[in-house]
Amino acid sequence: IITLSDLECDYINARSCCSKLNKWVVSEVIGHAVVTVLMLLSLHWFIFLLNLPVATWNIYRYIMVPSGNMGVFDPTEIHNRGQLKSHMKEAMIKLGFHLLCFFMYLYSMILALIND
């Protein structure tokens, strides 16, 4: 969010912004897929169903990058067609989702410690 807002305010150029953001895309896809599979294997159905759409969206977004683009975030297209605003909205939604997941995981951990 901070990097995208810096780009929006012209504090950094599009190429450095996109290279910073693209560095984290693959690790985000792998990490979220691993967490989703672990929730399936540990039979936490609600958390699995909560994570499944986000993991699917991350994989879809990574796979559908057009050939010739630098990555999910492309410096030549980030200002076109309102992509900057959509990337900012997506980052805010993901922030809210990860905040919700953090408190759910914390509650689950405390509940498991109390029950033992």
Automatic annotation (TrEMBL):
<dbReference type="Pfam" id="PF03311">
    <property type="entry name" value="Cornichon"/>
</dbReference>
<feature type="transmembrane region" description="Helical">
    <location>
        <begin position="29"/>
        <end position="52"/>
    </location>
</feature>
<dbReference type="InterPro" id="IPR003377">
    <property type="entry name" value="Cornichon"/>
</dbReference>
<keyword id="KW-0472">Membrane</keyword>
<keyword id="KW-0812">Transmembrane</keyword>
<protein>
    <submittedName>
        <fullName>CNIH4 protein</fullName>
    </submittedName>
</protein>
<dbReference type="GO" id="GO:0016020">
    <property type="term" value="C:membrane"/>
</dbReference>
<comment type="similarity">
    <text>Belongs to the cornichon family.</text>
</comment>
<keyword id="KW-1133">Transmembrane helix</keyword>
<dbReference type="GO" id="GO:0016192">
    <property type="term" value="P:vesicle-mediated transport"/>
</dbReference>
<feature type="transmembrane region" description="Helical">
    <location>
        <begin position="95"/>
        <end position="114"/>
    </location>
</feature>
